[in-house]
Specification:
Rossmann fold; 7 strands; 15% strand; globular; EC 1.1.1.53; androstan-3-alpha,17-beta-diol dehydrogenase (NAD+) activity; NAD(P)-bd_dom_sf; oxidoreductase
């Protein structure tokens, strides 16, 4: 018996990295899964490998949200879970960052999350309940040099999560946020980041002195998607190896 037996989930940014780990674990736990991404080749390959439903999905576009949600409901008859996972990161100090770069990060990470919540309210009401899991970051608690836009977006996700939790509780829709720390994905391997960050010093500062595998985040996401977290809403779950224990947030 799987943790997510009978659930239908939509995962954004699901073609690779943490998103792909969510897709695989949700399927292993018994869910039926639709996932979206702008990375069509990777998305189609994962769909062929796993049997999950892939749809091209730009999370900044309301029309594409309507299409992605509609495809999940048409394929599986309902929608119980949304994982707002899609996100982008660009290392730029404020003095060097263009307004276009700033706007793009806010559009994908924050507006995309807000649009996702808005887009699943009606199908989750029709299903009688639902769980929305918003992927924020430890950067939603602390700021880092070169991460002003990313931190702004992830702080914003925290606020949207809490407001949505209050608004949607009456419909038995729960909304929580997950805050990963150092996760071994292609995003953190960006040359602009690795060139600026002293990796050895960074690891020495950790409590658990290693990067996490994406599935270690997925296990927390699956718990929040499941009925075992039925009394959790508006809450924040860090998956950071103790990174924030000394941050004083």
């Amino acid at each position: 018996m799987g943790l997510l037996d009978g659930k239908v989930a939509l995962v954004t940014g699901g073609a690779r990295g943490m998103g792909a780990a969510h897709v695989r674990l949700f399927l292993a736990e018994g869910a039926r899964v639709a996932f979206g991404d702008v990375l069509d080749e990777e998305g189609k390959a994962l769909a062929e490998e796993t049997g999950a439903l892939f749809v091209h999905h730009d999370v900044t576009d309301p029309g594409e949200w309507e299409r992605a949600v509609g495809a999940a409901v048409e394929a599986y008859g309902r929608l119980d879970v949304l994982v707002n996972n899609a996100g982008i990161l660009k290392f730029r100090r404020i003095a060097d960052m263009t307004l276009e770069e700033y706007d793009r990060i806010l559009d994908v990470n924050l507006k995309g999350t807000w649009l996702g919540i808005k887009s699943v309210i009606e199908p989750m009401k029709a299903a009688g309940r639902g769980s929305i899991v918003n992927i924020s970051s430890v950067e939603g608690f602390i700021g880092a040099e070169g991460m002003s836009a990313y931190a702004a977006s992830k702080f914003g996700v925290r606020g949207v999560t809490k407001a949505a939790a209050r608004e949607l509780a009456r419909f038995k829709i729960r909304v929580n946020s997950v805050h990963p720390g150092a996760i071994n994905t292609s995003m953190v391997a960006d040359p602009e980041i690795t060139a600026e960050v002293d990796a050895e010093a960074f690891i020495k500062s950790m409590v658990i002195k290693r990067f996490a595998q994406p599935v270690e985040v997925s296990h927390v996401v699956a718990f929040l998607a499941s009925d075992r977290s039925s009394y959790c809403t508006g809450s924040e779950f860090t998956v950071d190896g103790g990174m924030l224990t000394g941050a004083g947030y």
